[in-house]
Amino acid sequence: MNEFEFIIVLTEHRFLGMVFQPFFIKKQERFFSVVRMLKPRDLKDSNYNWQPYEKELVNLIDKYSDEVLVKKFSRAKSVSEFFSTLKSTFFEKQVIPYIEKCMMEVASILMLSPVRLFKKEAKYSNLYDEDEILVYPLFARPEFHFKRTEEQTRYQLKVFLKEQELLLSNRTCKVVTNDPCLVVYKNQLVAFEKLNAKKLMPFFEKDYVAVPNTIEEKYYSGFVLNTIRDYDVKAAGFEIVKADTKKHAVLSLEMNLQYKPCLVLTFAYGSEKFLPNSVRKIAVSLQKKNGSFVFSKTVRDFGWEQEIVNAIFNVGLIEDNGSFVLKGISLLEQENALYFFVNWLNKNRPELERNGIQVKQKQLEKKYYTGSQQLELKTQTKGDWFDVYAVVRFGEFSIPFIQLKKYILNDIREFELPNGEVAVLPEEWFARYKGLLPFGKSHGERIQFEKHHFTLLQDSIQATDKLVKQKYEQLVNAEQEVVVLPANIKATLRSYQEEGFNWMYGLYKNSLGGCLADDMGLGKTLQTLTLLLKLKRMKRDIQVQNPVTEKRQLDLFANNSEVEHDLQPASLIVVPTSLVHNWSNEIKKFTPALKVYKYVGTQRKKVEDIEKIARFYDVIITTYGTVRNDVDLLSGIKFFYLILDESQSIKNSTSKTYKAVMKMLAQHKLVITGTPIENSLSDLWSQMNFLNPGILGNLAFFRRSFITPIEKHANQEQMEKLQLMIRPFVLRRKKDEVARDLPPLMEEIRVCPMEGKQHKMYEHEKSIIRNTILTAIEQEGVKKSSFVVLQGLTKLRQLANHPSLVEDGLDEASGKFNVIFRMLGNLVAEKHKVLIFSSFVSHLELLQEKIEEENWKYSKLTGQTTKREEVIREFQEDPENRIFLISLKAGGVGLNLTEADYVFIIDPWWNPAAENQAINRAHRIGQNKHVFVYRFITENSIEEKIQKLKDRKSSLADKFINSNNPFQEITKEEIVDLFK
């Protein structure tokens, strides 16, 4: 319960005159004692139950407190300095209007709230009931009376509260504020909505004001006209008539004060015009007829005006500073904004006119065509080409679309019509056709396009003949045809792998190149081999095209028979050196019916032998380096398929590798990669241009049209257009998309070749170690030589991993390290998380150094790690942290790392139990992803020997795995076999 009463008092300020102030008062027996004046800080007083309107009053009144006025209107250091230096003109023109506006807001709240108002003299601290000022809840209504006679015009002002007239005099009225006017009338606060007190004051002392006829014309054309416009007027001796005018609305395209285009709405009532935000409700005009004054009064029809405004809103315009604009127009440059408005009028002018709104232009440099414009297109086929015919209709004018090609390609929006009006070509045409036209060739009034641009045509052109639609269907739905798998495939394909095979076969049928870009581990190699097995030595004729020098293209739907009658040659598969072994093994494992030849190293033959090999073998495997070095030899051979694995190897179109593969001759092309885009869209261009030359235009065009807009400006429209263009030629499935087809755990052994110098070092050290071990066994026996044997095994393992593990600072390459890092880069690009386990901390440190060079986030856990939980949490919770380096001893048990879905075991050894424990860090309860495990084995090394023993479950492997001391059971012969 409140002990005090909140009130407002009207009191005299020593400089400002009459002002409102908030107070707490307390009821005494016969009076009210003033407790204190209130400030905004008092609103925090929790002992008083503040009402919202009371808080608002306190804050409003504080706006003209001495301290606030000093800050708002001066740089004075104190209140006294402010008022002593305040100039009277500034005070009257700036400070007083501000204060009076605030006081009117206070009065408006008092008119509607139960807060009481009291008058208070500064020297008294008590208030009495008779000090209360009643606040009238309605605005007073002024009524002006004019009476014209032959000698003068008398002017009176009457004031009414409802229907009761107030008798004005100095004794009854006291002015509180001037504009707007607040007066205290007989102990009652009266507010006027828009009357200035200066109009009221003359009638405090006299009943009327007389104006002589000698100045009446000026008086009637000024004061009287404005008064008739703004107030209720009673006239005698002259006429006030209501104008009878027709009304209509006009939307005018013009430039605003910032010289930006906008649509200005005007309501025209005869000759009178109103803007929508005009405060004038009435327009008054004056005519003098036969010595008498006649005022014509035009009253606005706000209901009709609101209907017009609603119609404007319904067509998408919004209000902005008194004019109408389109959403987002402020983001456009001036010229583009003007074009945007013109095109908007092209589409919406009929709807505006149906709602009775006229469209005009005002003060523009040119006359723009704002009528309808339509583009009509149809497509026909001619052999292997699509022919596009198009006509643009600008009202009565028909223009062949081919005439607009240079305008669209050069971003010229303005096209002059025969009547001199300027048509603005819609931005939509540029967006839709600018990317299409560079791929077309002009022929008279038609434009021709090649078959691999069918996606652009399908998106851009609706009107097509039946043959075109049929061809579209053949191209679009080619992959939907279910193709019977080759009977002699030695694998069971999962459903998504069958879909990939069908997709590649569909591209093959239509002589189109494709990019298989599935996630790592989904069997891209198997899908590709299935296709090659399906097409093995088909008895058919072929035509080989050079993509660099031959521009002619096969008929799109021919049966691919031509004049050259050659047996189908081999397919050439180009891979990184580290994958030659893997492809060879996969062919032997899954498609042994394919005859395979490895064209690498010393197996490379002379040209006549290569041509024979190409006719005899089904598949030739080679490396990018070999193609680069032997391009003159290989480019003269006709291949059936040219397949690039890890095709990001040709991402640089200026590289020798790219230029070499572009010279190769093949009837069909395919690329395989998990990361078609590693750094830039230019990576994609190189691979797509290899597959289907010209599909994305030349590189300069692609950079201008796609790379810059997408990479620098995140242009969504160009991104979608590029996706449309490449979608039929790129198949990418992520692991989580095909999860239902995968087993919970997939394991693969990746055999890695040694680098040349690494292999020499390994063989040299192996020879020394073998001799040392044999000598030790001869002298000490097997059991006492165990340390020497283990030391030798460990050194060979380290050499197989990386030469610098044996000798610090040794700058020699490692084949396994290169394979691991290449696969790791793919996984990071594909946004997967991977655990990397090693028995050697130094091996992890080598990877760590390389990872840091790439600025990839990672975590690391070894026996030296003290904050295990923090390291684990960072990996689990940070989506950008994709790599966890873990030593097998420190992280083989006790970890739950279910965020990871790939596991690398980079130096496998005897005991599979330890490896399984490591795998179980990711493959455990709580894991909702399928886990891929890769074991990296160095080819022709101790690691490969150990793996073969484990695979055969030999007694030697069993002794090392299950025996506490294998050297009690192992023989000299078994040890020697390891070091052969």
From TrEMBL:
InterPro entries: Helicase_ATP-bd, Helicase_C-like, P-loop_NTPase, SNF2-like_sf, SNF2/RAD54-like_C, SNF2_N. Residues 819-979 form the Helicase C-terminal domain. Signal peptide: none annotated. It comes from the Bacteria. Keywords: ATP-binding, Helicase, Hydrolase, Nucleotide-binding. Transmembrane segments: none annotated. Residues 505-694 form the Helicase ATP-binding domain. GO terms for molecular function: ATP binding; helicase activity; hydrolase activity. Coiled coil: none annotated. This is DEAD/DEAH box helicase. It comes from Draconibacterium aestuarii.
